[in-house]
Amino acid sequence: MVRSGWSRGIVIRALTGALIFGTLACGDRAELDSQRRAWESVRPSHYHFDYTVRGFAPGGGPWRLEVKGTQVVSATYVGSGPEPTPGVTAAFAPTIDDLFDQVAQGLDASSVEVSVSYDPQWHHPADAYFDAGEEGDGFRAGSLEPVE
Fold first, then answer.
1. How confident is the prediction for the chain on average, in pLDDT?
2. Which of 5, 53, 96, 123 is the most exposed place for a label (fewest CB within 10 A)?
3. In what order do the strands lie in the sheet with 63-68?
4. Secondary structure of residue 48 in the 3-state scheme
5. Residue 121 burial (CB count, 10 A)
6. Is 2 domain-assigned?
7. What is the domain range of residue 61?
8. Is 55 helix (H, G, I), strand (E, B) or coil?
9. Pseudo-torsion of CA 80, 48, 72, 60, nearest 10°?
10. Residue 73, SS3?
11. Tens place of pLDDT per residue across the chain (148 aa)
């Protein structure tokens, strides 16, 4: 019998770790819907989070985005070095709900491969990448905290 070097135990531990830390290797609509429902049950009405644009999309980061209700009320560059131009402004910055919509749009596009992981506490998309072949882009979102 030929063995590949992968034991059943290693595979099970890797899958269990992925579930515990909210990581999926690729996008899945059912998982997105489940995580969105979980987010809606814990979503603060006023929060801030750190947002970084990945890939070829403009904006860079990290940016501290403050959201009140359904609107971004401030976008502050919190990275080192000069602020990227063009940057992210409050008028065009995403809320967590917008990030869910971006992932949904990527999953609905047949020409895009989506990789996404979710925050284990808040259930929002924490790291997403949309690979459309030669170019791709995405985002990282983390350090979410309610604002009193």
1. 84
2. 5
3. 71-77, 63-68, 46-55, 136-146, 125-131, 113-118
4. strand
5. 10
6. no
7. 24-146
8. strand
9. 30
10. strand
11. 444 343 333 333 433 344 434 444 456 899 999 999 999 999 999 999 999 999 877 788 899 999 999 999 999 999 988 888 788 899 999 999 999 999 999 999 888 899 999 999 999 999 999 998 878 899 999 999 999 8
Per-residue pLDDT tens over the stretch 112-133: 899 999 999 999 999 999 998 8
Token couple for 111? 């020409």
| Burial of 99 per CB tally in 10 Å (0-12, 13-18, 19+) | buried
Quickly list DSSP for 64-84: EEEEETTEEEEEEE-SSSSPP
Query: Does any domain span residue 6?
Result: no
Q: How many domains does the chain have?
A: 1
The two tokens of residue 63 are 């940016």
pTM: 0.79
Q: What sign does the CA torsion over 49, 38, 9, 128 have?
A: negative
